[in-house]
Design goal:
Strand content: 35-45%
Shape: globular
Radius of gyration: 18 Å
Helix content: under 10%
Number of helices: 1
Distance between the termini: 16 Å
Mean pLDDT: 82
Low-confidence stretches: 1-31
Structural class: mainly beta
Strand order of the largest sheet: 1-2-3-5-4
Order of helices and strands: EEEEEEEEEEEEEHEE
């Protein structure tokens, strides 16, 4: 089942990748004004179809879209859908997608122990306690809050660093670089991180630890990560 965060402290999440890369923190807007009802993993198939993993046991099969809609990439997304048939053998449900909004999805950045993580950004950020903040299917999906100027502010850079603690490979450091955008109102956005290569697949959950600089100082928290079941 979907693992939800159980606290209300906010924080920001950054990107991990084999090479240093940045991501832009964008607002996510619903298509056609339809409110989302689920967070899913978009999984393009070899036959050009697409499946949407909703949770540990439920997979949605859209009848009105193909893999080309997403450029053949696996990403996280918010969806609003209408079931067409009851769940079939294997837990697959045929659905009509009413709206879908992909979430910026990134890989982790692996660094060496002892790396000065502040060089990747040390500006405060918050993780919001929300139904869309989940650790499932090998992905960490977060609603984050930052201070920014929507009209004149610069793009924010997010990084999620792996490898900082040699004694715990499942500990990550969240870094946020506001790139000088320090004035304005607080705003929320969504971002997802693909941790499948690190947490692996399997029936059991794993516990991941997140360290970050919040608006009230450094904090840590843990998520029970639901891994992908092959």
């Amino acid at each position: 089942m979907r693992k939800r965060i159980v606290f209300t402290i906010s924080c920001c999440l950054t990107v991990l990748s084999v090479l240093l890369q940045s991501c832009d923190l964008d607002n996510n807007e619903m298509v056609d004004g339809m409110m989302p009802i689920a967070v899913v993993t978009v999984c393009p198939q070899e036959d050009e179809s697409v499946l949407l993993r909703q949770d540990d046991v439920t997979v949605l099969r859209p009848v009105n879209m193909t893999a080309s809609t997403f450029g053949g990439k696996e990403v996280r997304a918010l969806v609003n859908y209408t079931p067409i048939e009851e769940k079939t053998t294997g837990g697959i449900i045929d659905v009509k997608i009413n709206s879908i909004d992909t979430i910026r999805t990134k890989m982790p950045l692996t660094v060496l122990p002892g790396t000065d993580v502040t060089t990747y950004g040390n500006d405060p950020i918050e993780i919001m306690g929300s139904w869309v903040t989940v650790a499932e299917d090998g992905y960490l999906t977060l609603m984050v809050r930052t201070v920014r100027n929507p009209l004149f502010g610069s793009k924010h850079t997010l990084n999620l660093l792996a490898g900082t603690n040699p004694e715990n490979p499942l500990e990550f450091v969240l870094c946020h670089d506001a790139n000088g955008d320090y004035s304005g109102d607080k705003g929320d956005s969504l971002i997802a991180f693909n941790l499948n290569d690190i947490v692996g697949s399997g029936e059991s959950d794993v516990k991941i630890k997140i360290v970050w600089n919040s608006f009230t100082g450094y904090k840590t928290t843990e998520f029970n990560m639901s891994r992908r079941k092959e």
